[in-house]
From TrEMBL:
Transmembrane segments: none annotated. PANTHER family: LCC1, MULTI-COPPER OXIDASE. SUPFAM superfamilies: Cupredoxins. It comes from Cudoniella acicularis. Keywords: Copper, Metal-binding, Oxidoreductase, Signal. Residues 39-155, 166-268, 384-469 form the Plastocyanin-like domain. This is Multicopper oxidase. One of its GO terms (molecular function) is oxidoreductase activity. Residues 290-305 have a biased composition (Low complexity). Residues 1-25 form the signal peptide.
């Protein structure tokens, strides 16, 4: 868990029988996909309510990054955040960064923040395929708008006619992110403030009459919704991304069944009867009015023309399988089977919290509240051969163990999305209370995830092989486990 402040259209056709080798190693296309990102402050009103935000190339959400499996993605980030200036960094969510841990984008773990006024180029391989996103990993900047979609085209395990592209969904706070952060860590503050809205591809309506009394922020009703073009009788691929800072999302499309074809970067087979899929929080009406691809946000200059309103939502009744829990693990198995070995070592890490001497609320993982040092990343110290880390860096040294099982017991009444960098976690167990020490769901081929929710007062058991070394330092697996609420 890191500190509060830090934290596809198949271009190739269906490949029925990829070998195990291919599932672990991407092809090397030699193609470089270059992007240039200028990060700066700006003001937008994606739901009609004007807000100070951080933008990439003046866009929100940030530009779509697209590549084919095996390409090299190269992104130069120019930090032009000023008044006040801040560091920044960019994390490429779910990419393994094999051989390139220093491009994972985590200040205090793999790099120093990109200083104000300077630039940094990330270069890494599109080693997995599917749908993901990138986001700032500095402070809570992504609650301020610093994120965007990332698609890697590759083999597809499902037939579909139309790729509707990314559907980014995120909670949206009208308060500027830094002041939220201050209130989150303030004595007597709210560690989990509620958001004001929920955006789909950076758009949503907001009822300006619900603004707090005395709030003079400019606000426009009926700012507009994202629209998608559905064709009757065709099968559509939707790439859902939760780009929110805290909100767990629960997705359904009125009166239509969805078939889940991939969780994170892990393709899953398409069963005859589609599993019901859920997270938690609101359901959405279908984006009903035909239009071509969703348009990126543009500053509003003139009064918007009146658009037809979508019909009222008739959401499915899909009960939450727990208290804000992912689906039952037994419902999903990966397309490519991997059987986890008996782990070489097992570690239990409990999630808890405490109030420190100055009255600040702090989350802990394994008894430690993480506090990194932006000037001294873990990776560079390890590369220098010094493995004596300050306790508050919360470094777990698994030595030469070939596989690691981690039992996360959540002793708090709040669910937490757990996310391991550098690996797809094999999720062995998830449920209420503590793990019984032996139950494993689908032991011969457990679901693999980039992010897994550990439910409130529940547990999650995950395992990974230590197959992602930093070749320069000879250190196995310098990767962080974080809680995505940052
Ligand atoms: C959705 O799937 C269920 C279970 O297979 C089926 O009974 C129902 O008819 C389907 N509904 C639609 C609208 O396809
Ligand atoms: C308590 O935590 C806050 C927030 O991380 C920090 O600013 C403060 O220095 C801590 N207090 C002590 C006494 O360590
Ligand atoms: C190793 O790093 C720690 C802090 O990260 C530092 O206190 C210590 O002096 C370093 N040891 C050596 C031998 O450089
Ligand atoms: C395996 O990991 C444990 C920590 O869980 C560590 O104490 C032990 O030294 C490691 N063993 C090897 C052989 O590196």
């Amino acid at each position: 868990m890191s500190l509060l402040g830090s934290i596809i259209n198949g271009v190739l056709s269906i490949v029925g029988a990829l070998t195990q080798q291919q599932t672990n190693g991407a092809p090397n296309t030699g193609v470089i996909r270059s992007y240039d990102f200028t990060v700066s402050r700006g003001q937008i009103a994606p739901d009609g309510y004007q807000k100070d935000v951080l933008l990439i190339n003046n866009q929100f959400p940030g530009p779509l990054i697209e590549a084919n499996w095996g390409d090299t993605i190269q992104v130069t980030v120019h930090n032009q955040i000023s008044n006040p200036s801040e560091g920044t960094s960019m994390h490429w969510h779910g990419l393994l960064q094999k051989g390139t841990p220093w491009y994972d984008g985590i200040p205090s773990v793999g790099q120093c923040p990109i200083a104000p006024g300077s630039s940094f180029t990330y270069t890494f391989q599109a080693s997995l395929y599917g749908t993901t996103w990138y986001h700032s990993h500095y402070s809570a900047q992504y609650a301020g708008g610093l994120f965007g979609p990332l698609i890697i085209h590759g083999p597809s395990n499902a037939q579909y006619d139309i790729d509707l592209g990314p559907v980014m969904i995120n909670d949206w706070y009208h308060e500027e992110y830094f002041s939220i952060l201050e209130s989150v860590v303030d004595p007597g503050g709210n560690p989990r403030p509620a958001s004001d809205n929920n955006l789909i591809n950076g758009k949503m309506d907001f009822d300006c009459s619900t603004k707090a009394a005395g709030d003079n922020t400019p606000c426009t009703d009926n700012a507009g919704l994202s629209r998608f073009k559905f064709t009757t009788g065709k099968t559509h691929r939707l790439r859902f991304i939760n780009g929110g800072s805290q909100g767990i999302q629960r997705i359904s499309i009125d009166q239509h069944n969805m078939t889940i074809i991939a969780n994170d970067f892990v393709p899953i087979p398409t069963p005859e009867a589609p599993p019901q899929h859920s997270g938690c929080a609101p359901t959405f009406p279908p984006p009903a009015v035909p239009q071509t691809n969703p348009t990126p946000w543009q500053p509003s200059t003139t009064t918007k023309p009146t658009r037809p309103r979508p019909p009222p939502a008739k959401p499915w009744n899909i009960p939450d399988p727990g208290t804000c829990a992912n689906d039952d693990l037994s419902l999903s198995v990966p397309y490519y089977s991997i059987t986890p070995p008996t782990p070489a070592t097992t570690k239990e890490l409990s999630i808890s919290f405490y109030v420190n001497e100055t009255g600040n609320f702090l989350w802990t993982l394994g008894g430690t509240s993480f506090r990194g040092n932006y000037n001294h990343p873990v990776l560079s110290q390890a590369q220098a051969g010094n493995l004596s880390f300050p306790a508050e860096w919360n470094v777990q040294n698994f030595g030469t163990n070939s596989s690691v099982r981690i039992v996360v017991n959540n002793l708090t009444p709040a669910s937490h999305p757990m996310h391991l960098h550098g690996h797809n976690m094999e999720i062995l167990s998830e449920g209420p209370g503590s793990w019984d020490g032996s139950s494993i769901t689908n032991p011969s081929n457990p679901i693999r995830r980039d992010v897994q929710l550990v439910r409130a007062n529940g547990h999650m058991v995950m395992q990974y092989d230590t197959d992602n070394p930093d070749s320069d330092s000879g250190c196995a697996d310098m990767y962080e486990l974080d809680e995505l609420y940052e």
